[in-house]
Write a structure and sequence with these properties.
Layout lengths: L7 H8 L4 E7 L22 H13 L4 E7 L3 H7 L4 E3 L13 H9 L3 E2 L3 H8 L1 H10 L7 E4 L12 H7 L6 E5 L9 E3 L5 H12 L3 E5 L5 E6 L3 E4 L2 E4 L9 E3 L21 E3 L6 H17 L6 E7 L5 E7 L26 H19 L5 H4 L4
Parallel strand pairs: 1-2, 1-3, 3-4
Antiparallel strand pairs: 5-8, 6-7, 6-8, 9-12, 9-14, 10-11, 12-13, 14-15
Length: 382
């Protein structure tokens, strides 16, 4: 089968009545049927079931007839087989353990089911702030100076630690201390002095039992930019570009007493807390944010939607802080939205278009580069 981008609308139309899609959410380890033995969660757990249901409802609304939601747990493969699932949309962040974002894509690759999401290595790397920043550094992508520390090595002694000196030189604060894998800005602290640093690192390690990231605090403006694949959706049509599709960048609005953005679990995302940028005043920054997002996507060989957190330093230079490999895709309401959907109208899109675009990008990748993985899907089109 020879495929071109002009075939994509027809392929999606053809598959609407045949393709069986499962949208996953995170299973609960406290459910007696979820795991064999309960272990540790280094990051705080969240089910994302409501978002999975939003994605399911939207896929049905745009024409796909067979869409299911399923928890990610030890029974997932059995459920996929029972329901003859052809494609999985990964909307889960793991049940328990370390590198939980890689568990579902790893299982799916093992049994031969394609998915919307990052492959296991990229999923783990994007969710691990240290690994992500290391790769950015290696690609020449600007990021704040950093190092990691594992509490199992004992107490950090920054004034004599050679890695600390290599990372920060004579800089002695303030710092940001955060879990190497986390979500929703939880357990993130601004530490003003080098003397306070060891105790805060110990505190974060004690709560997560995982590596702790130490980073130079940047005092400038804070932004987000989401990037998808090379399929663009404009004026109701798909097109292809050499550059990934960059959504409208968003500025996170810090309150007077905020030095870092407060967890979305404590303060839901609203139009007052995150806003579109002014094209007239910030045109240069907007273009730089889009370039940074596209560079990360291409240089790290990503394959699915990401959202980057970016902050300016005291000189206004932009630094990539971290990536979210599973950005929030909840359907906006009158009072609450998510950081990607804030800018959809500016690009002539709505929530349905967002879900359509993410799926279209994955199908385009599969039909263009990975036809050998989707024989069971191409058979549906005969």
């Amino acid at each position: 089968m020879h495929y071109t981008i002009t075939d994509l609308p027809a392929i999606m139309d053809n598959l609407q009545s045949k393709l069986r899609i499962a949208v996953t959410y995170s299973g609960d380890k406290n459910d007696p049927n979820a795991v064999i033995y309960k272990t540790h969660n280094p990051r705080s757990w969240k089910s994302y079931q409501k978002v999975a249901e939003d994605i399911q409802a939207t896929l049905k609304e745009i024409g796909f007839r067979h869409v299911f939601t399923m928890p990610e747990n030890k029974n997932l493969l059995e459920s996929l087989k029972k329901n003859t699932i052809h494609l999985v949309w990964i909307n889960s962040a793991g049940v328990q353990g370390y590198s939980p974002m890689s568990h579902t894509p790893g299982m799916l690759e093992m049994v031969g089911i394609p998915y919307v999401g990052h492959h296991p290595v990229n999923a783990a790397k994007l969710d691990n702030k240290y690994a992500f920043k290391l790769e950015c550094q290696g690609c020449g992508i600007p990021t704040a100076p950093f190092m990691n520390w594992n509490g199992a090595r004992g107490k950090l002694m920054p004034k004599v630690n050679k890695i600390f000196k290599l990372s920060f030189g004579s800089y002695d604060g303030p710092f940001v201390v955060k879990p190497v894998s986390g979500r929703a800005s939880l357990l993130i602290y601004v530490v003003d002095t080098i003397d306070e640093l060891p105790d805060v690192v110990d505190e974060v390690y004690g709560k997560t039992l995982d590596t702790v990231l130490i980073e130079k605090y940047l005092g400038g403006r804070e932004f987000c930019i989401a990037v998808c694949g090379n399929v663009h959706f404009e004026e109701g049509r798909f097109s292809i570009s050499r550059k990934p599709f960059a959504f409208s960048p968003i500025e996170r609005v810090l309150e007077e007493d905020e030095r870092i953005f407060t967890s979305m679990d404590k303060k839901p995302i609203t139009g007052e807390r995150a806003k579109l940028m002014n094209k007239a005043e910030d045109s240069v920054i907007i273009e730089r944010l889009k370039e940074l997002g596209q560079t990360v996507y291409l240089d790290l060989a990503l394959e699915s939607l990401i959202r980057l957190d970016i902050r300016a330093d005291e000189r206004g230079d932009l630094k990539v802080l971290e990536a979210n490999p599973k950005p929030d895709l909840k359907k906006p309401s009158e009072t609450v939205t998510n950081l990607i959907c804030i800018g959809l109208a500016e690009q002539g899109m709505d929530y349905n278009d967002l879900i359509r675009l993410v799926l279209a990008n994955r199908l385009h990748q599969l039909f263009t580069h990975k036809m050998h993985l989707i024989g069971h899907i191409t058979e549906l089109m005969t």
